[in-house]
Amino acid sequence: MTRVWCVYSVLDGRPGAAEDQNAFEVACDDVDAPTLREIDASCPFVKAHAGDWRWRVQTDDAVFGHCWRDVARDSEPVATTPAPEGDAMTFRARLLDVSPAAIARRRRPPPKLR
Q1: Could you give the count of Cα atoms lying within 13 Å of 35 in the half-sphere of its Cβ?
Q2: Handedness of CA 96, 97, 102, 103 (dihedral sign)
Q3: What are residue 42's phi and psi, to 5 degrees?
Q4: Distance in angstroms (rounded) separating the CA atoms of residues 78 and 25
Q5: Positive or negative, the Cα torsion across 72, 94, 53, 15?
Q6: Which residues of 77-111 are buried (b: 16+ CB within 10 A; e: fewer)?
Q7: Which tens digit of pLDDT belongs to each residue from 12-56?
Q8: Per the confidence metrics, is the pTM higher than 0.85?
Q9: In 3-state terms, the chain is what percent helix, strand and coil (to 5)?
């Protein structure tokens, strides 16, 4: 049976947060295109941390190799790709905190140069 895994990082305004990666298995009906609703229901981080979270998924791009796309609708599908091992499908995502406090942290003025 093919399983779907989400490899994700949390972008919440902390320095280096994009490099901290984690993964979880997604319970979904279609292994080729899990929906945002299924991803949210399967993600332990979203369940454990209050906030206004938005998913940004990595998609293929002919010019740049890949780009990041926001997923907004609960019924919106997310494309998956076969894992190297062949027994799973994966997709890469970033979980972006869009709460007012997180936005304020990201909008801090740059440090003054001496």
Answers
A1: 8
A2: positive
A3: -95, -15
A4: 14
A5: negative
A6: ebebeeeeeeebbbbbbbbbbeeeebeeeeeeeee
A7: 666 665 567 788 888 888 888 888 889 888 988 887 877 778 888
A8: no
A9: 20, 40, 40
With tokens 């791009």, the residue in question is 61
Closest CA to 1 of 25, 24, 31, 40: 31
Count the neighbouring beta carbons within 10 Å of the beta carbon of residue 28. Answer: 21
Strands 81-82 and 88-97: antiparallel
User: What pLDDT is attached to residue 46?
Assistant: 80
User: Do 56 and 93 form a contact (C-beta atoms < 8 A)?
Assistant: yes
Structure tokens at 32: 């080729």
- Encoded tokens for 36: 């945002």
**How many whole angstroms separate alpha carbon 40 and alpha carbon 45?**
9
Answer for the pair 59, 69: CB distance below 8 angstroms, yes or no: yes
